[in-house]
Each structure stands twice: as C-alpha cells, then as structure tokens.
Amino acid sequence: MFRPSHVVVGALALIAAACSDNDNFVHIGNFATVRLVNDTDTPLSFISGSVLVPADGRLVFGQSSACLLIDLSNVPALVITNATTGATIVFTPTLFPTANLTVVAFGTALGDVQFAALDNHFVPTANNAGLRFFNGASSPGPLLMSRNAAALTPFVGFGAASGFVNVPTDSGSITFSNQSSVVLDAGRMAFPVGQNSTVVVGPRAVGTDPLRFFTVQGC
Q: What's the rounded Cα separation, in Å, for the pair 98 and 76?
C-alpha cells in the first residue's frame, strides 16, 4: 500500500508526453512520468511557465491529466495549484528517473488536499489485465474490492492503494465492502487486456449518499 505525501511549496517543469499502459514509455535523461488524478472537489491544475495543464486549467473530480514527463533537474520538480484560488499545492513524492506514477489527489475529512503516488510498474499475465484500487473515502473505513463476489484485495485503509492483481478481461461485477457490508456497487466493468487500471473510490458528493468512483489507466 502507498502512503500520502503532504504539501509544500515549489516550482514546476512539465512536458506533456504520450505513454502506454504497460510503462512502454521511453524515459530519456533525468525524467519521470506522472499522471495526476483528482479525487477531490477542489479544482486542480499544473502550471509550466505560462502554460496550464490541462488547457482549460482545471481538473475537477474524476478527471486526470495526460501522462506528463517531468524534468527532475528542476528543484522542486512538481507544482500543483488550486485552480480556483491560484494557491500553490505542492507535494514531495519520491521521484527518480524511470519513475512511472499515478498521483491521486484526495481530501481529508477537514478538506485538506493530500497526494498519494502509486507506482505503475506491473505487467499483467498473458491475456489478463492489471487492476488495483485507491481508497479516497475517509468513511466508511477500510475497504476491499471484489469481482463477482470473490475478494480481489485485502482491506485497504483511507489514503492508500491495494497492490495490482490480475483479472480477466471479460465484464465482471465490481463491488467494495467494509467490515460489515457492501458499501459501493460499481456495476459490471471490463478492463483492457495487457493494461493496468486503477479504480479510484472517492467521497460522497455534498448532499448525496453513494460513494463516488472512477477508473484511470496507468502510464
């Protein structure tokens, strides 16, 4: 499981880059590959010089950036901002050449934005897909993911991710349970052969009851 990194202040250099879901991206020099995922209701953006990423400068809940090639020669290498206020929200993950990360922004019960850096280095077995989940819901406690009522993962606490598991590529029922019951039925889901996917479980929207979720593929 992966633990969150807390926020600090810094500056950024990002270069948009294409990547595949099995880390087939060719790393050149002192670079790491990162995809930012927003599991909060705080709009987020990257800034590189005067260029916003994404183009409209806002990643809202359930959205993710393209895979980005980060120049590690810049110190600090990565900056994220609140797209509404312009305030800098920067985290300090362990970045190194050939790092390939899905970075999940998630919110605490107090509304603070934190970050978890999830390693994408996993190769599914032949004819299967790789699957894991991130628990970004502070309630209802640790969760496990099941497919067709069979547990895929152990219980995972808030702000952490399960490891990757191999799953068939045909459609299956994906559910999430706490210690007592199913708390989220994500419906039937299928995942691309040979690729890695992360189901991100998010908090309830204001005034609603169900947990939210979305899926993002690795770089």
A: 17
Instruction: Return the minimum-mean-pLDDT range out of 17-21, 120-124, 144-148, 206-210.
Output: 17-21
Contact yes or no for 182/174 (Cβ under 8 A): no
Whole-angstrom distance, CA of residue 88 vs CA of residue 92: 13
- Supply the mean pLDDT for the chain: 83
Q: How far is Cα 102 from Cα 80, in angstroms, rounded to an integer? A: 14
Residue 203 neighbours by CB under 8 Å, 6+ apart: 39, 107, 136, 137, 138, 139, 211, 212
Total number of domains constituting the chain: 2
Q: What is the CATH number of the domain that holds 200?
A: 2.60.40
- pLDDT higher than 70, residue 13: no
Domain that holds residue 59: 4-119
Q: How many CB atoms lie within 10 A of CB 209?
A: 6
Cut 0.85: pTM above it? no
Distance between CA atoms of 115 and 38, rounded to whole angstroms? 9
